[in-house]
């Protein structure tokens, strides 16, 4: 192991920034062979970065640094590691897709890496301003990426929508944070926690600020009633960018939700838990019902994302009811496990859309999947794994994620939470219908065109690995669950 | 122990291998590989019965490993006298189903064979699981291959049938999931089914648990009035799917009563026994009458399955050793007989492409060998002494007479109705003059079909003439279960 103490504590982020600059420089106006080189530089630096995070995760230390602006703890590294892997997978899927559309430019790679840098900053922030800086770095890169297909009206519209609503959300968040600053006199998360804990601060100001913060986080997570941008952006953006938006940033949104609400504002948990319960039930209802009516696969997955993240959010709700850190860790770690495994499945589903797309043909409609089981049984099989996993059927990983959340809810023994668990179960039964419909389209319907699909080898292998992970984490979820639990325990006990 | 684990995982791995290697242009090799795998999977279950200690009531061949630490869930598989025969039955039926699909399935052969092999391993997992979460995982995982089997190789309304099957059973099992989570919390974070069985519970809790489990198992059995999915699914499913569904999947529900409802909520079970007995009698009498008016052979056998499963639930809830053993024997014998009936219909359907009784008549003239088998299985279906169908029904009726004469009298009408609808179908399909051109062109069964039906015929006759090995194995476990159920565990 490298001597960790001899390096500046944010060395993974410094390395990422350096390599991003290298990629940006090498990738400017690059010829095709230079682009290949840039791509591999990017992938190798991300792999090295992943190893750095893994190394830190195993070291399991909690260190505050840079005048307590950042915190280095297992939770941050777990999220950053997952985000790095998600970005690597995204780039792997995106390369053949973008290349065939003449969109594979240097800026795609460097912007993707910049957004990852923003994510890394967010998940290890210990200060409201650092949260905001990281958030903007990530968001601005993603706005630009959405508009990558600049001659395309739908994509441009999606980019505008994403930008305006995203900026509004950032404004909300910033406004809420400034209220907190006004009330507590600090931007430092632990100081805010202490100040609220003393109980001498005017509750109205705090609650007022909290509403704005929760609304801002709701926007970033894409939860109802702040979900309006999600379907349009998912559908309008080039699929490679959709994947970039729907993967790693969800981990970041989880990270800042945890840092702000749990580490900073847990004194207000009674208030924010009620808001989260409402948001989560509304999201699950709206997401699952609206998804039934969709014919566009990307749009369907967008509504599915709303519903799934609503379910994840339930893990935040049963945590601060006088049951000690172990019970709280159960709730938060179930949400963390949920989001990590959800991102894993999402990568696969959008990856599949890219594998099936060819030059001049976007495989976006559900009907485009008809007869896939005949044309390409392996790809269809992997997609079926994702669909059954999202529907929550054992032995796939989605079931254990849902089960962990439900267990956290029911183990409170409080009647309201048990009712909440029953509602969540019933709504996911509705969800099972549209996931099954996709399986039906792939396996039971006749294909319109019977030529076998030849996906690009690298992307197909990646897809298979992705499916294997969804199955493997389902059969043996223990390792990841324990890692999530330990990361959360460390974060809330300090 | 190794053999039980092999019984679960060998067919699943075999299925994965077939999925990986098979293509329709090497279908012949795929079929042989599937057969070899299915036979191997069956052979590894034999040491379970030869090495079974019949004097011991507890779990045997146990493997217990930590599975998910966070939930304290274990990979704990084992069998007792109640479950061990179902492991063998599942593996045997899978062999037969692989043979039955030999020339019939020509498209996506490897996927078909793999689906059945994986399903077989998963269902054995249900019978062997001693951990609540593991049980639920296996129980739900059976839906995926069955959904694909019905949807891909099924009849014209297969999509409707596959969705109905999946969503209906999923709704039932979700209520069971709630019950499992409740038990987990009550038992201080344990998923051990044996610990749940010892857990004292209040009457309210027991009643809630009883009905939550009833929702899952009643749909699976299926019991009246939640049986409506079964006829639809049977009609649309391919022959092998129907055979596995009737022979084994229905038993998962009945088995659940023995493993969960009765021992975990014994007081509620006693209290609500009248309800289950009433539903069972409705299944036996009313569904028996419904079966009589069917014009579709598969539907007729489907309704007959519901009526026969009514006997099983009746046998469980009279709390008598003879009755319970009879019910379990009935589950095994119905496994052989219903599989044989559906495979027989499959033999006819492959030739004439109709399941309509009216499309046949005088088949015995053109297919004498097949008709002999068909009549044998029909006799077993109506419970003729000397066949497997007789033993279980007779034991249940005998035990019920000691419980209540009128209940026994109603249950005994099943023998009349069973004989009526089965024999009437046999008469219309197999006997009489040949009037249809399609029947006059029929070819008798080939050696493959002969072998597949002969295996089941031997099983049906052997079980009917000498049922002692079956009852010997389950005796001690059933007595222990009844002793446990007789003791109140209220708090």
If you compute it from the alpha carbons, what radius of gyration of chain B comes out, rounded to the nearest whole angstrom?
Answer: 21 Å
Give the spatial strand order of the biggest sheet of chain A: 1-2
Strand content of chain A: under 5%
- The side-by-side strand order for the widest beta sheet of chain B comes to 1-2
Distance between the termini of chain B: 37 Å
**What proportion of the residues of chain B form beta strands (DSSP E)?**
under 5%
What is the H/E order of chain B?
A: HHHEEHHHHHHHHHHHHHHHHHHH
Number of helices of chain B: 22
Feature tags:
heterodimer; A: 494 residues; mainly alpha; 20 helices; 1% strand; B: 491 residues; 2 strands
Question: Which SSEs are present, and which pair or pack?
Answer:
The complex is a heterodimer of chains A (494) and B (491).
Chain A lengths: L10 H16 L5 H28 L3 E3 L4 E3 L1 H26 L6 H18 L4 H19 L6 H32 L4 H10 L4 H19 L7 H8 L2 H8 L1 H17 L4 H24 L4 H18 L9 H33 L15 H4 L1 H15 L5 H14 L4 H29 L13 H19 L2 H16 L1
Antiparallel strand pairs in A: 1-2
Chain B lengths: L1 H20 L5 H17 L2 H5 L9 E9 L4 E7 L4 H17 L8 H20 L3 H10 L1 H11 L4 H29 L6 H6 L4 H18 L8 H8 L2 H26 L1 H27 L4 H20 L4 H32 L10 H4 L1 H14 L6 H16 L1 H26 L6 H4 L6 H19 L2 H19 L5
Antiparallel strand pairs in B: 1-2
Helix pairs in contact in B: 1-2, 1-5, 2-4, 2-5, 4-5, 4-12, 4-15, 4-21, 5-6, 5-7, 5-12, 6-8, 7-8, 8-10, 8-11, 10-12, 10-13, 11-14, 12-13, 12-14, 12-15, 12-22, 13-14, 13-19, 14-15, 14-18, 14-19, 15-17, 15-18, 15-21, 15-22, 17-19, 17-21, 18-19, 18-21
């Amino acid at each position: 192991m490298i001597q960790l103490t001899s390096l500046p504590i944010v060395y993974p982020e410094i390395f990422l920034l350096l390599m991003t600059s290298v990629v940006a420089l090498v990738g400017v106006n690059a010829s095709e062979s230079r682009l290949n080189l840039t791509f591999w530089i990017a992938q190798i630096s991300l792999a090295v970065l992943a190893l750095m995070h893994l190394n830190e995760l195993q070291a399991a230390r909690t260190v505050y640094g840079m005048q307590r602006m950042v915190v280095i703890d297992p939770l941050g590294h777990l999220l950053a590691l997952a985000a790095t892997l998600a970005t690597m997978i995204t780039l792997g899927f995106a390369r053949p897709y973008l290349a065939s559309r003449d969109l594979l430019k240097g800026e795609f790679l460097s912007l993707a890496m910049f957004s990852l840098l923003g994510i890394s900053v967010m998940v290890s922030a210990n200060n409201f301003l650092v949260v905001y800086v990281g958030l903007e770095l990530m968001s601005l890169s993603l706005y630009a990426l959405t508009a990558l297909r600049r001659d395309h009206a739908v994509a441009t519209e999606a980019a505008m929508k994403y930008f305006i609503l995203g900026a509004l959300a950032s404004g909300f968040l910033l406004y809420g944070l400034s209220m907190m600053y006004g009330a507590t006199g600090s931007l430092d998360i632990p100081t805010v926690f202490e100040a609220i804990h003393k109980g001498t601060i005017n509750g109205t100001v705090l609650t007022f600020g909290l509403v704005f913060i929760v609304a801002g986080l709701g926007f970033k997570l894409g939860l109802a009633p702040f979900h309006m941008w999600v379907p349009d952006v998912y559908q309008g953006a080039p699929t490679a960018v959709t994947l970039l938006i729907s993967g790693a940033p969800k981990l970041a949104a989880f990270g800042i939700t945890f840092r702000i609400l749990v580490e900073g504002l847990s004194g207000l948990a009674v208030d924010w838990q009620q808001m989260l319960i409402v948001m989560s039930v509304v999201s699950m209802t709206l997401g699952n019902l609206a998804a039934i009516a969709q014919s566009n696969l990307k749009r369907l997955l967008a509504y599915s994302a709303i519903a799934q993240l609503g379910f994840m959010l339930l893990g935040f709700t049963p945590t601060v009811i006088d049951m000690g850190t172990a019970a709280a860790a159960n709730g938060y770690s179930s949400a963390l496990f949920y989001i990590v495994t959800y991102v894993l499945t999402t990568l696969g589903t959008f990856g599949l859309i890219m594998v099936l797309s060819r030059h001049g043909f976007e495989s976006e409609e559900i009907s485009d999947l008809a007869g896939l089981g005949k044309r390409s049984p392996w790809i269809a099989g992997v997609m079926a794994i994702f669909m059954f996993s999202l529907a929550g059927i054992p032995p796939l990983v989605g079931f254990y994620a849902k089960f962990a959340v439900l267990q956290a809810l029911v183990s409170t023994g409080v009647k309201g939470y048990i009712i909440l668990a029953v509602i969540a179960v019933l709504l996911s039964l509705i969800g099972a219908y549209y996931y099954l419909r996709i399986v039906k389209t792939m396996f039971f319907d006749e294909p319109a065109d019977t030529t076998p699909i030849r996906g690009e080898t690298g992307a197909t292998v990646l897809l298979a690995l992705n499916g294997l992970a969804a199955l493997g984490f389902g059969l043996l979820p223990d390792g990841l669950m324990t890692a999530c639990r330990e990361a959360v325990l460390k974060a809330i006990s300090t | 122990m190794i053999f039980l684990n092999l019984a679960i995982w060998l067919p699943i791995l075999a299925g994965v291998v077939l999925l990986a290697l098979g293509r329709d242009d090497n279908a012949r090799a795929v079929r042989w590989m599937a057969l070899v795998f299915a036979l191997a999977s069956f052979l590894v279950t034999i040491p379970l019965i030869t090495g079974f200690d019949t004097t011991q009531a507890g779990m045997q061949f146990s493997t217990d490993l930590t599975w998910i630490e966070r939930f304290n869930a274990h990979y704990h598989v084992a069998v007792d006298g109640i479950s061990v025969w179902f492991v063998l039955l599942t593996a045997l039926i899978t062999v037969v189903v692989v043979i039955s699909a030999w020339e019939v399935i020509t498209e996506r052969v490897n996927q078909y064979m793999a689906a059945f092999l994986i399903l077989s391993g998963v269902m054995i997992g249900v019978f062997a699981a001693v951990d609540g979460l593991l049980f639920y995982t296996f129980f739900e995982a059976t839906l995926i291959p069955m959904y694909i089997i019905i949807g891909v190789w099924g009849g014209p309304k297969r999509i409707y049938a596959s969705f109905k099957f999946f969503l209906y059973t999923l709704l039932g099992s979700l209520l069971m999931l709630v019950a499992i989570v409740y038990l987990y919390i009550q038992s201080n974070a344990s998923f051990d089914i044996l610990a749940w069985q010892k857990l004292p519970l209040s009457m309210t809790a027991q009643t809630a648990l009883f009905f939550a489990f009833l929702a899952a198992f009643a749909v699976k059995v299926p019991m009246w009035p939640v049986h409506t999915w079964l006829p639809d699914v049977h009609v649309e499913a391919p022959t092998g799917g129907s055979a596995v569904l009737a022979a084994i999947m229905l038993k998962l529900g009945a088995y659940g009563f023995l493993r969960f409802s009765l021992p975990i909520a014994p007081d509620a079970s006693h209290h609500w026994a009248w309800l289950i007995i009433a539903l069972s009698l409705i299944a036996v009498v009313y569904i028996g009458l419904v079966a009589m008016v069917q014009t579709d052979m598969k539907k007729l056998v489907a309704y007959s399955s519901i009526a026969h499963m009514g006997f099983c639930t009746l046998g469980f809830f009279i709390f008598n050793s003879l009755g319970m053993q009879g019910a379990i024997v009935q589950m095994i014998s119905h496994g052989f007989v219903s599989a044989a009936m559906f495979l027989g219909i499959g033999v006819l359907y492959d030739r004439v492409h109709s399941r309509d009784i009216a499309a046949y008549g005088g088949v015995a003239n053109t297919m004498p060998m097949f008709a002999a088998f068909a009549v044998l299985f029909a006799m077993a279906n109506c419970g003729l002494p000397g066949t497997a169908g007789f033993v279980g029904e007779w034991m249940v009726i005998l035990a019920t007479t000691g419980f209540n004469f009128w209940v026994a009298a109603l249950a005994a009408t099943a023998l009349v109705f069973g004989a009526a609808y089965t024999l009437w179908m046999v008469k219309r399909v197999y006997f009489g003059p040949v009037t249809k051109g399609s029947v006059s062109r029929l070819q008798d069964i080939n050696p493959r079909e002969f072998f597949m039906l002969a295996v089941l015929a031997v099983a049906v006759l052997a079980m009917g003439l000498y049922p002692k090995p079956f009852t010997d194995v389950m005796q001690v476990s059933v007595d222990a279960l009844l002793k446990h159920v007789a003791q109140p565990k209220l708090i």
